[in-house]
Please model this.
Amino acid sequence: MNANLNEESLAFLFKAITTLETVEDCRKFFEDLCTIPELKAMSQRLMVAKMLSEKTVYSKIVAETGASTATISRVNRSLNYTSCDGYALVFERLKNMEQKEHE
Model:
């Protein structure tokens, strides 16, 4: 993690996020916390990560998300070359949630 980021304030942010229980809670919180461009950028990166994890080619990702190839490359590095596995964690949990909804 970036050494310039204040660990205490980050911990507070992450704890705050864990208190959110519904999609509506998240929408309200993130609309207060972030600007529209910040939300669009985060949602775009998440969609790019999802598509990359599904082995979608760059050209289709660009066409469907409007993301630049630089953004796609950056997300791809996060998916494949970091030890955080945050995207994988979220995608697995979303998959499990969807399966439970269909039972």
